[in-house]
Amino acid sequence: MRTRHLLAAAAAAIALPLATALPAQSHGYVDQPPSRSALCGADAVPWDCGDIQWEPQSVEGPKGFPARGPVDGTICAGGDARWAPLDDPRGGAWPTTRVTAGQQLTFTWHIEARHATTNFTYYLTKPGYDASRPITRAALDLTPFLTVPYDGRRPAATTTHTATLPTGRTGHQVIVAVWEIADTGNAFYSCTDVAF
């Protein structure tokens, strides 16, 4: 009997630190077309993405974009230095998804915790964007090309939104998707590189 209690206590002592050391599987990211987070999580880029490769769902930062939120140059990482490789433009070398102006494009979010949601918004870089530079508000059209209100509802584990892509873009552009949480001060940020 005593041995069984000792074994149970030992197992609990080992399990507690392991449980608290594991990352929380609690958030979400754009899976299709593949965001920078998704590409890193799938080991689909030839450079070191850092810790985001194990936590593509964790790009969380202050909400209120574009008036508030992450500072310029840290938008793709949600303002979190742990995910800084997502803000590095790699000289324009991020893999792109081929698109055409005016086409319908469906965005698929992989959501690991279904938070009460204010909305999802999607922004696109301006004509003439230089893909070798980090994302800033000055580089973005700050009027979203798609806003999907949720009014506090929780999204599905796989959530899709379809948008018509703006016209007047050529070459390498970046879509910044923002999932704003209703009951916290944060949002999730996801950057997807596209080629018109």
Write the SSE topology.
Layout: H1 2-21, E1 28-32, H2 36-41, E2 60-62, E3 97-98, E4 104-111, E5 117-125, E6 140-149, E7 158-164, E8 172-181, E9 186-195
Parallel strand pairs: 3-9
Antiparallel strand pairs: 1-4, 2-9, 4-7, 5-6, 5-8, 8-9
User: Which segments are poorly predicted (pLDDT under 50) over 5 or more consecutive residues?
Assistant: 1-26
Per CATH, the architecture is Distorted Sandwich
Q: Write down the domain tally.
A: 1
Share in helix:
10-25%
Q: Whole-Å distance between the termini?
A: 70 Å
Strand content: 25-35%
CATH class: Mainly Beta
Shape: globular
Rg (CA only): 19 Å
How large is the count of helical segments? 2
Structural class designation: alpha+beta
Largest sheet: 6 strands, mixed
Task: Describe the structure concisely for a colleague.
The protein is of the alpha+beta class and 196 residues long.
Describe this structure in words.
By secondary structure, the protein is an alpha+beta fold. It is built from 2 helices and 9 strands, in the order H-E-H-E-E-E-E-E-E-E-E. The strands form 2 sheets. Strands 2, 3, 5, 6, 8 and 9 form a 6-stranded mixed β-sheet that branches. Residues 1-26 have low confidence and may be disordered. The relative contact order is 0.22. It has one domain (26-195): Distorted Sandwich (Coagulation Factor XIII, Chain A, domain 1), CATH 2.70.50.50. Helix content is 13%, strand content 33%. Strand 8 and strand 9 form a beta hairpin.
Task: Name a few traits of the molecule.
single chain, 196 residues, alpha+beta, Coagulation Factor XIII, Chain A, domain 1, 6-stranded mixed β-sheet, 3-stranded antiparallel β-sheet, 9 strands, globular, disordered N terminus
